[in-house]
Specification:
Blueprint: E1 9-12, H1 13-20, E2 26-27, H2 28-40, E3 46-51, E4 64-65, H3 68-75, E5 79-82, E6 86-87, E7 90-91, H4 95-107, E8 110-112, H5 118-123, H6 125-134, E9 135-136, E10 139-141, E11 144-146, H7 159-162, H8 171-174, H9 204-209
Parallel strand pairs: 1-3, 1-8, 2-4, 3-5, 8-9
Antiparallel strand pairs: 6-7, 10-11
Helix pairs in contact: 1-2, 2-3
Amino acid sequence: GPHMDLRPVVIDGSNVAMSHGNKEVFSCRGILLAVNWFLERGHTDITVFVPSWRKEQPRPDVPITDQHILRELEKKKILVFTPSRRVGGKRVVCYDDRFIVKLAFESDGVVVSNDTYRDLQGERQEWKRFIEERLLMYSFVNDKFMPPDDPLGRHGPSLDNFLRKKPLPSEHRKQPCPYGKKCTYGIKCRFFHPERPSRPQRSVADELRA
């Protein structure tokens, strides 16, 4: 089916939950909103990682809302709790980060996070490149999960193509030419030139007459 063309999605649960909770609350609802966004687009391979201490009784200094969502997503085999250690009352950070990047890298998927994993980028060259090319950042506008239309910048793939294993062939017509006005391909260029007047291509008959 068409969903076979979609890349696996690995969601940084802590990043998404804290982001939805405005950096003050671990909002599990944020995770659900992100998961639903991908499900609605037809993705079937979705994994959310959350450190296992988040299922414990919440402490007042680390507020959490809608904690039951974590268990529900775990039952659906979407959410995975990563082993997390606490040393002297502090959790060892980056433990779940490594799970997130490793799974996405090995499954050739995308990572959903606003974290750029600087420390992991320094560890392995192939991870650095992978994070640069496969990180999907996002915003929450109230309860709307919103990734950018151009995840890798203006000259990169559209969001649709970013989430697919193979780009849609029709995309080139909409994708702006990376060379812009410096392009030397002229009318033969297969990319879109916003600066050129869009005139219908002449038919072969017209070409011959001309």
